[in-house]
Design a protein that fits this description.
Length: 231
């Protein structure tokens, strides 16, 4: 199996923004992604309900420069590795879960590792810019971006159409600009798409079931939004 790890002679160089060694950032850079198509989930707990487990669907699997493969989920306002959501207020990762066989596991499935490593070897990109698009994959879990320009007195829900992996390893959620929309359905790569975090009104990502509850004026969902407003 090919080894994508690289050597770093300057482990003592620190990035001024993240305060992490440059070598660590390079190792963690995502170089290839593969959508999760079989409904595998991430399990997590939170401080308010330490005895309960919650689940969200894994969006995709990412291959890092060091050869590690990790699950990726939209979490708060970014796409993040499942095992890095450790926040006492917002959840702690407990593992991956396959509902079909009711199996709990802690590393990426072998078939996804093979898929990613094979694809990374096959596609040899020569990029001129850190912002060059390496991949664009569709959102398969119904992610919505939450926009608000009045402190959550009102909100707009925008369906995330796709996710773009850039040459610098960052992954952008792509939403549609209705003023530039020419035809439907809107597909990955459409000219009307732009990165959600480029919109000054963008705040969070919501799972599809929460977004649907908000669209139907569900009282509990509306109460949760009111807490954001108060905050």
């Amino acid at each position: 199996m090919p080894n994508h790890a690289i050597d770093h002679p300057m482990d003592n160089v620190i990035d001024i923004f993240t305060r992490k060694p440059i070598s660590e950032l390079s190792d963690n850079k995502i170089i290839r992604i593969a959508p999760e198509l079989d409904g595998l989930e991430m399990l997590y707990s939170n401080a308010q309900n330490p005895e309960k487990l919650f689940s969200v669907r894994v969006l995709a699997w990412g291959l890092r420069t060091n050869g590690e493969v990790i699950g990726l989920v939209p979490w708060l306002d970014e796409l993040i590795a499942c095992d890095e959501i450790n926040d006492p207020l917002n959840g702690q990762w407990k593992g991956y879960f396959d509902q079909g066989v009711e199996e709990l596991f802690f590393t990426a499935p072998l078939h996804k590792v093979v898929e990613l490593e094979t694809a990374a070897d096959y596609y040899d990109y020569h990029c001129e810019s850190e912002q060059d698009v390496i991949q664009e994959v569709p959102d398969t879990i119904g992610t919505h971006a939450v926009l608000s320009n009045d402190g959550f007195s009102s909100i707009t829900l925008k369906e995330v159409i796709s996710w773009r992996l850039l040459n610098n390893g960052s992954i952008e959620a792509m939403i549609a600009d209705e003023e530039k929309l020419v035809s439907t359905p809107v597909l990955p790569g459409d000219d009307c798409l732009y990165a959600a975090d480029k919109n000054k009104d963008f705040h969070y990502f919501f799972q599809h079931h929460i977004a649907n509850k908000l669209k139907s004026n569900d009282p509990e969902a509306l109460a949760a939004i009111s807490l954001l407003k108060d905050g």
